[in-house]
Task: structure prediction
Amino acid sequence: MRKKYLGEEQKHYIDGLKRYESKGIPVYIDGERPEEKDWEKIFEIREDGSFYMCDYVGAEDGGLKEIHFDLVYNR
Result:
């Protein structure tokens, strides 16, 4: 897989996700809390056509509870 270098928009997006984490809203990539090296993979489009899709999980009070990024396949 090719190394992807992040542009300013992607870096800004990741910074925003990290701000959510700092406010107690966890972010998961493939069901796990990401390490620093894992953040950029949410922007990858893989050779098999798969890519990451974001899902915002709401709390009962209407707020945001969690953010999930899961690999999906375009078929």
